[in-house]
Design a protein that fits this description.
The model has no long low-confidence stretch (mean pLDDT about 80). A hairpin with a 5-residue loop joins β2 and β3. The protein is built from no helices and 4 strands. It is globular, with a radius of gyration of 12 Å. The protein is mostly beta strands. It has one domain.
Length: about 80
């Protein structure tokens, strides 16, 4: 499962589809830690060393079972 964290109307690039940096991703279903999230670097490559999103805003969860998941808003 891949997610993108973004904020509506965030600055001059609001319509360019950029993500939100420095966000931490969680989902409402419990997942093993090794299943993610793995955030994407500024070069849009998965980087398991990152602990929060970059300006790309993307994160990846591995081995996710079929079903509905929710990502609650931060803050």
């Amino acid at each position: 499962m891949v997610i993108t964290v973004t904020r509506l109307l965030s600055g001059q690039n609001a319509y360019l589809g950029q993500g939100e940096a420095d966000a931490k991703s969680t989902v409402t279903r419990a997942l093993p830690a090794e299943d993610g999230p793995v955030c994407f670097s500024d070069s849009v490559l998965p980087d398991s060393g990152l602990t929060a999103t970059t300006k790309d805003g993307g994160a990846l969860y591995f081995n996710v079972a079929r079903g509905d998941y929710e990502q609650p808003p931060a803050g």
